[in-house]
UniProtKB/TrEMBL annotation:
PANTHER family the UniProt entry points to: AMIDOHYDROLASE, BLL3371 PROTEIN
One Pfam entry name: Amidohydro_2
GO terms, molecular function: hydrolase activity
Species the sequence originates in: Mycobacterium pseudoshottsii
Entry-linked SUPFAM superfamilies: Metallo-dependent hydrolases
Family membership noted in the UniProt record: Belongs to the metallo-dependent hydrolases superfamily.
InterPro entries referenced in this protein's UniProt entry, alphabetically: Amidohydro-rel, Metal_Hydrolase, Metallo-dep_Lactonases
Domain of life: Bacteria
Name of the protein in question: Amidohydrolase-related domain-containing protein
All copies of domain Amidohydrolase-related, residue ranges: 9-346
Length: 349
């Protein structure tokens, strides 16, 4: 870190290079780089759920590195970022450590790019070698602060699943193995779809001394509009999705060891699609307002989720929409810096 405290912390960014690192799209990215005209045909080979989740494949099929993030974030003046694991593909049980090493070597803090303040690594607590993996991550970088293992799963076959286990976080193996995360004092980023919030509550309640960070509002798929094959297809359906989400968010917020990110409100899977600034603000307002009311000013903070949200929203908009929705409740110092710095233990030297 620099010798001063950061003014703005972006607590959720992704970096990747599909040409030089192992990603699910690496093969396609290399083909498209050589022959861009084949992209439309290649995309048809991907499941519809994957295509709809991505929104615009250009952001996955090309590099996204510190210089690219700087270009997106320069109007905001981000000083420090938290890198969150981003789909490093490997069959080696310890292979995700390579991502930690790769991210640590990226040119953050150079030529105007923000510094790398913390790293959230990939590790699956249900894996047999979870303790060994976590120790390897910690040895790879002193910036490792937390773990993420995505639990997002939908029964709608048109919605992208990130795990075959519909109840990953509440499964016996996951909860048993989570002891390794807790014993090392690491935080845990939770990302589930809205209807899975009870599983997140079960896990967070079982480990009260671990800090849990809720990502992306626990994405209530279809809350903005139709998504997948049959989710959010009517106004009544969308009201039910939001009603259940509100109740479960309130229950999760009752646990004092859980904090939440204002992130991901531009994700295509919400049913966002291409919207004007005002339209996106109106769609996102119920998520933003209720999360802030439930968790309060000391347990929420902004994160861009870039470049995943980029197809639908510019990075400065992710802050301006928050500011417009929250009004007087927008505590800039806490939401843009202090809370994230505390949760991810960012230092000033």
């Amino acid at each position: 870190m620099t010798d001063r405290a950061p003014t703005v912390v972006d607590a959720h960014v992704h970096q990747w290079d599909p040409f030089a690192t192992p990603r699910a799209v690496s093969g396609v990215a290399k083909i498209v780089r050589r022959a861009p005209a084949v992209l439309p045909a290649l995309l048809r080979l991907f499941p519809r759920a994957s295509r709809e989740f991505i929104g615009d494949p250009r952001y996955l099929l090309d590099r996204y590195l510190p210089v690219d993030y700087l270009q997106d974030s320069s109007p905001v003046g981000v000083d420090a970022v938290v890198h969150v694991e981003a789909g490093w593909r490997t069959k080696d049980p310890l292979g995700s450590v390579d991502e930690t090493q790769w991210v640590s070597a990226l040119p953050f803090g150079i030529a105007g790019a923000p510094v790398l303040g913390a790293i959230v690594v990939h590790a699956d607590p249900s894996a047999p070698r979870i303790a060994e993996l976590l120790d390897a991550h910690l040895q790879a970088s002193a910036l490792v602060r937390g773990v993420r293992c995505i639990g997002a799963h939908s029964d709608d076959r048109g919605v992208m699943n990130w795990t075959p286990n519909a109840h990953l976080y509440s499964s016996a193996d996951f909860r048993r193995g989570f002891t390794a995360v807790a014993e090392r004092g690491l935080s845990f980023d939770m990302w589930v779809y809205g209807h899975q919030l009870p599983d997140a509550i079960t896990l967070a309640r079982e480990y009260p001394d671990t800090t849990f960070i809720l990502d992306h509002y626990a994405t209530p798929v279809g809350a903005y509009g139709p998504s997948g094959k049959h989710t959010g297809t009517s106004s009544a359906d969308r009201r039910a999705i939001l009603g259940r989400w509100r109740d479960d968010i309130s229950s999760l917020a009752e646990l004092p060891n859980v904090v939440a990110k204002h992130s991901g409100f531009g994700m295509p899977v919400l049913g966002a699609g291409a919207r004007s600034h005002d339209e996106l603000r109106e769609a996102a307002a119920p998520l933003i307002s209720h999360l802030q009311a439930a968790f309060g000013p000391q347990r929420t903070f902004w994160s861009s989720n870039f470049p995943i949200d980029k197809p639908n929203v510019a990075l400065p908009q992710t802050i301006s929409i928050l500011r417009e929705v929250l009004g007087d409740q927008f505590d800039q110092t806490r939401i843009l810096r202090d809370n994230a710095s505390r949760v991810y233990r960012l230092t000033s030297n």
